[in-house]
């Protein structure tokens, strides 16, 4: 496979996943806003922070509220992580590598892009953001479905999926990091009813409320939420799960190339570490530090993959 | 569809009765379905110089154009003869230049032509084939088919030919039961065979071919990716390739891989910054050197464009006669070369009845259609012709054949042309039984170019 094709597939996976995450972040912010609280804008501020584009937003020098943040995260063409930018880039890469995709895969992505374009073009009609969020989540599911159901299990599939899981792990870590100060160590209560409700919203935004109840069969406990999203292998958004499958896809690629590279070794090490670490150890070293370390290691993994496959 | 007597031609009779049975809104509905499908699949093209222009689809008309097998046999014979002569012409002008010595063509038209590539005098393409892939544009008048233009520099449109057929098979399967339509899918096999046959000699195993594209921003990008996909080969950009020790390699996830045949969809000027335009970032530095060493084959060969230039076009009948000793079976549309004083006088005297084209333009840009031009436009062209007669040719306004075409809620007659596609290797030149019919969507319009609002139709050659 062309190295450039591998790069496009990888980033296609990342951008589609990021679009989904941004949609979910906004969904959570809408829920925060609906809760009785002293500062109705705090949820919007944390949504921007979790998206990893807080620095850019600060440069705008505007107040973070529903209007500014929803625009910034959904349609702002200058924000490289807005839903619009993500879909633009994903669609561009899909066009570049369309021969590596099935018709179904390309069609789904192209369709969502066309839909967003036509919404943007009709400036006279206000865009229903909540509807947009629903559509994006739905389109991303369609895209994933098309990949799972139609793509041959070969390099094409593995590179897209690698991009997806690495982006997903990054997103989960950022989501947790922004709320880390409220995730208190065992024995201490969540900061009251509001925090409880906020955490429900966060968990719901990653579709993990029910999973939490099934696994722990108790009230929301901060360290258990961290345990769930960091270390539970069976949760598809957990860091542990993402690193496990990343390492698996790299293994599949290696089987094809018979070359072990630095990316393989790093993914294996990260996955092994997450499987053996306990939540107590995470808190001992500090949750914030743990997440920061993970984000930078995950970043390194992304670079090592690019290096190993020369893109 | 109708003969000059006004009656429906025999080949169209079943289609005509099918059309008259089809409620117009049903036709319109299927028409819309076809366009939606094209857009979803991203079968799009871009028009240069238009704001917001990326992502247009070429309008597709659901009523097919029919060519009888006899008509096609004539086209096939003429196209093969023409392309073989043009390949001999190219071998000659980059070699002994017999045709110039014989005084058939003014030497400056060839040697001072911007498409003439001096570097090609040192390089002999395998088997003497320069134009591997050719598209011959024809129009039909009451006297039969005539060639309007040769396209030997990476002609486009085959993707539309193949996708239009796909669309028709999905939309109107029953029509194909009533008509025995010859398949066009063979084009891909011809292309595959050709790429194998022109590969450099001495390769162990299957030669590795690639399609070289300028990238996703190019107006014909869809076609490039479509072709690579159908051929089962990589679609590469210049940056994916590099030269080393006079061989060409592509960068892959498994390391460098040697490339043997490059089907390039970028212009000569951009192919190799070391040989042509030094500022090109689309090409591959060292490509021409590897080509000269015989280690890679470039399809179509650089320098082929000199043979499809509009100034050379008017000499093609003479070219055919010179190399084959026979008259061209497929004639040109009558053409006045304004560089010749008599022709210029005729053109100036009859401007309001003629079509005038610049010899170095394409795509329907920079032309004058006499009967539809205003006084001011005529005067402007008169001045331009006097200024630079060598830059123009003139042709009569033809009464082109028409074909029924969906227009809003009606079915109307619209002018059509036909681009036939041929693939040439040292073994043979093969013409696809079909082609791309372009249709002028505006009433009375004679301009069918997609960049000027033309559409396409599926083209049927009946067995």
UniProtKB/TrEMBL annotation, chain A:
Residues 1-309 form the DUF403 domain. It comes from Pacificimonas flava. Coiled coil: none annotated. This is DUF403 domain-containing protein. It holds the Pfam family Alpha-E. It comes from the Bacteria.
From TrEMBL, chain B:
Transmembrane segments: none annotated. Pfam families: CP_ATPgrasp_2. InterPro entries: ATP-dep_Glu-Cys_Ligase-2, CP_ATPgrasp_2, UCP005522. Residues 64-440 form the Circularly permuted ATP-grasp type domain. This is Circularly permuted ATP-grasp type 2 domain-containing protein.
